[in-house]
Amino acid sequence: MGMASKSVETASNLPMLLLLLPFLGSGFGPTDTMPSGLRWFADYQPFTPFVETLRGLLDGEPLGANLPLALAWCVVISAAGYTWSMATYEKKSVR
User: % helix / strand / coil in the chain, to the nearest 5?
Assistant: First the structure.
């Protein structure tokens, strides 16, 4: 994200969306108590499976589909980040 930004200020503000996503998930409250639009977003955003997997591992509850979903999100986010970083590097590198 640092190579994609034009200044130091934008480099520090670019990951703001990633910092806000855990607050819009199930990290602080169950999604059943949220309004319908926020509940839909919270159920399908990447941090909810992470939180539910960690909660299940710590409490000893069954993980269900949360662990494979969290691992799938890890693979997707890693692949997208790798692709974006390589494209940015190839575009901005001086050879």
Answer: 70, 0, 30
Q: What is the pTM of this model?
A: 0.76
Burial 6-37 (b: 16+ CB within 10 A, else e): eeeeeeeeeeeeeeebbeebbbeeeeeebeee
Query: Model confidence over 18-44: pLDDT tens digits?
Result: 888 888 888 888 888 889 988 999 888
Which residues, in sequence order, are CB contacts of 57 under 8 Å at separation 6+? 63
Element spanning 81, H or E:
helix 66-92
pLDDT of residue 95: 56
